[in-house]
Q: What sequence folds into this?
């Protein structure tokens, strides 16, 4: 047996550990075996825990094996699976594998009717797969995978040292696959949690939105517009896609008016302009928002957007009267998106502006109410028809 | 070189892939090397990406090596690290390792002053570690770890095949460690996301709580009490600790009154009892809560708690007048916790009951307003002084 492909396969099996996609991994292995070992085809039957079935991934060599439709997935009670489950302690064959020729010899010996039937059925399954050798791999008590080998291109039998090598390879691969599966599960879990968090925040912010009759849908629109501006900002400044920044903008957008929950309905829904005292009360919503979110340390950046989204570039805003670069970028972005959306929706005391009119206001406010860079990004998005 | 420990170490290195705690893994490896190979001591310098330093984990053999304090962590600009970073292409030594004797020979040859200085400093570092051979392992371009070997107990030199074996082992271990690190990172991320979700839900539910002046802190208390009842229920029914159920109870507790955000303040904070029409309006909070949370598919179980927490065991509750076992367990639990907490706090139209008095009410309501099993669990918790 040529030693060269062994080394290559061993090295490949090792590097597999850090491939965390089970499908990619299996295709890599079977393709390698077919190419290097020159077998007609090779496949891996991989256990799918949830459904308790085994799925076949196969690599066709030059022979072009055709797996009958419906056989790409076999159940846990298939004879081939049962055979390896019931005979994992290697009492039948020294190496624990099922090699067609040896198995046929065993059938002629004095074995129980039950074993005979199981073995015959297992060999029938191997014939369907056109396989001459099947090599199981276990992890703890679980039959994790079966490596299915077609015959060699040159017609020779597999030598024992070749089979031993495949057994070692199969266990490496099984380990790598299990590892990849664990990784994938964890990633799915993470994705679910992230979605749950965002969806819950969306639902609760929408509910608070609904309190304020004049701003229905306002929160969602401000959030989307803020995200557009933020992405454009990152592009312009040739920064990498900063996922964390975009996440913060998303959350800050969703929660920027959360403090309105602390404002009396009589002020929130007042028909007509607010008097000075009512205005003062309304302005409190920024700091009420901060009070609500303060305990959540992970939101420290998003909170800056909530706190300062009514500051003005010229320093005439609230709550602190910050000026220009003192105002965090996230707040400058939400401020512009918030003001633009307010302009284009009806309010108790005035009708909505058209987008064109609102954009004129934004331009006029550049360097006054609005950060000039953010205002110009907003204008760009408008001119491109993106808003 | 005895082949037996090779096999053992190889098998161990493989099974390492599924050990996902880097610290445990490293301790396993160095302890094994010291025991099986009979070296005086062995250690691994592992790269810490965030700080860009290398941390030493060492296993003392019989010789009891003492690493000077302060040397358990070395910086990325340490000569030993620099040497392996700058000479990873094996142009100096065939095998890419640093073996004390060979390196000393090299020093006597005609090499550049710069290399000479670096090598001398690296060897000095090896002397501090009392190491006779250092074996690097890389992952892609990163120097991931250095395996540090003391001399053999029997005083003999390492044979080349032993060193080759260690090189293969070091690369297995490096791979396993990198894999474990990735896993740990992902798990931390997941934990952070879960906390972020829960903390945000707590903050927002507390904010809604605060709208209803008479129930300040109510949400948190109901949630905690519901969790106590749920845990006790699982114990009593000899069920395994059902994390998913407890998570659902936690969320349902936090959000059970979320629908109150849709109830006018005039009704929510009315001094004195509500009239029929106001009551009808107030009752809507259960279905408003459902409307808010409905889009979040992951919350389907928690939503049952929100929807039905005002149903009564005898069928006289709302919104659907469900009876007995028709009412989901999660709602029965929140209902009892909610009623108990309402009794022991002042309301606009009556003063608070003592816990003892409230418990009498719960007993009286068992089989009427309350599920008998849940009522008896609540009583048990009270008698044990847990509430």
A:
């Amino acid at each position: 047996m040529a030693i060269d492909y062994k080394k290559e396969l061993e090295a490949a099996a090792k590097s597999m550990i850090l491939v965390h996609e089970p499908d990619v991994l299996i295709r890599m292995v079977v393709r390698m075996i077919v190419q290097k070992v020159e077998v007609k085809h090779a496949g891996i039957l991989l256990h799918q825990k949830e459904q308790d079935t085994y799925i076949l991934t196969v690599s066709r060599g030059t022979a072009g094996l055709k797996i009958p439709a419906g056989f790409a997935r076999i159940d846990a009670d298939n004879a081939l699976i049962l055979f390896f489950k019931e005979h994992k302690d290697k009492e039948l064959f020294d190496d624990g594998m099922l090699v067609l020729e040896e198995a046929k010899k065993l059938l002629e010996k004095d074995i129980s009717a039950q074993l005979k039937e199981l073995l015959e059925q297992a060999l029938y399954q191997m014939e369907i797969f056109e396989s001459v050798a099947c090599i199981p791999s276990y992890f703890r008590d679980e039959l994790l995978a079966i490596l299915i080998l077609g015959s060699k291109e040159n017609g020779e039998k597999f030598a024992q040292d070749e089979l031993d090598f495949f057994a070692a390879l199969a266990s490496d691969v099984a380990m790598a696959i299990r590892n990849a599966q664990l990784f994938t599960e964890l990633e799915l879990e993470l994705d679910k949690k992230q979605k749950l968090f965002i969806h819950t925040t969306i639902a609760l912010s929408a509910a608070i939105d609904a309190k304020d009759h004049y701003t229905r849908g306002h929160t969602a629109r401000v959030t989307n517009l803020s995200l557009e501006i933020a992405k454009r900002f990152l592009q312009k400044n040739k920064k990498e896609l900063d996922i964390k920044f975009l996440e913060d903008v998303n959350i800050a957008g969703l929660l920027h008016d959360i403090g309105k929950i602390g404002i009396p309905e009589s002020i929130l829904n007042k028909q007509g302009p607010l008097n000075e005292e009512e205005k003062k009360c309304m302005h409190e919503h920024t700091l009420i928002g901060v009070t609500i979110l303060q305990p959540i340390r992970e939101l420290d950046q998003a909170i800056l957007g909530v706190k300062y989204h009514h500051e003005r570039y010229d320093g005439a805003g609230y709550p602190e009267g910050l000026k220009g670069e003192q105002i965090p970028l996230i707040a400058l972005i939400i401020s512009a998106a918030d003001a633009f959306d307010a302009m284009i929706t009806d309010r108790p005391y005035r009708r909505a502006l058209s987008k064109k009119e609102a954009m004129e206001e934004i331009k006029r406010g550049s360097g006054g109410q609005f950060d000039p860079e953010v205002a110009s990004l907003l204008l760009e998005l408008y001119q491109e028809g993106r808003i």
In short: The mean pLDDT of chain B is 87. The CA atoms of residues 45 and 56 of chain B lie 4 Å apart. The radius of gyration of chain B is 33 Å. The longest strand of chain B covers residues 41-48.
